[in-house]
Design brief:
mainly beta, four-stranded antiparallel sheet, 9 strands
């Protein structure tokens, strides 16, 4: 009997998430990832597609726009003042469009990312706090190496 993915399964796998512009993450050329389903490493819509798959499966799935990481929300694009960026990080940091910057969560226990869209003359930075694949169709490729 082969082992299948269930809620809470601990997985060793290779996976690739890609949007129309190409790969966002791809572990196929490095060591495999290990994760626990339900831990938040993958979005719930992506995790849902793993349920019931057998160990050893390699599959490519096309996930419709907005389903994997939600819709792109305009309000999640926000200007952050240079003064605040200096307080949160390195005051000498230079920001450029396309950079991904990690911010601490208010409780200090986690982090979330913002992608730089533009920088103004005063050094304020316009960040997009949406997931890079929000509102886009996603290709999800997975190879299940082990299930515990």
């Amino acid at each position: 009997m082969s082992t299948i993915v269930e809620p809470g399964s601990f997985l060793t796998l290779h996976y690739r998430l890609a949007g129309p512009q190409g790969d966002i993450i791809n572990t196929f050329h490095e060591k495999p990832a290990t994760l626990s389903l339900g831990s938040g490493t993958l979005s719930p819509a992506v995790e849902q597609r793993l349920l019931g798959l057998a160990e050893g499966t390699r599959v490519v799935m096309e996930i419709p726009a907005g389903e994997a990481f939600g819709d792109h929300i305009a309000e999640m694009q926000q200007w952050v003042a240079r003064k605040l960026l200096n307080e949160l990080g390195d005051p000498t940091e230079k920001y450029a469009a396309g950079d991904v910057v990690q911010f601490p969560t208010p409780d200090g226990l986690g982090a979330y990312a913002g992608t730089v869209l533009q920088v103004n003359e005063e050094g304020a930075v316009l960040f997009d706090f949406n997931h890079p694949l929000a509102g886009q169709p996603v290709t999800f490729e997975v190879e299940l190496i082990g299930i515990l």
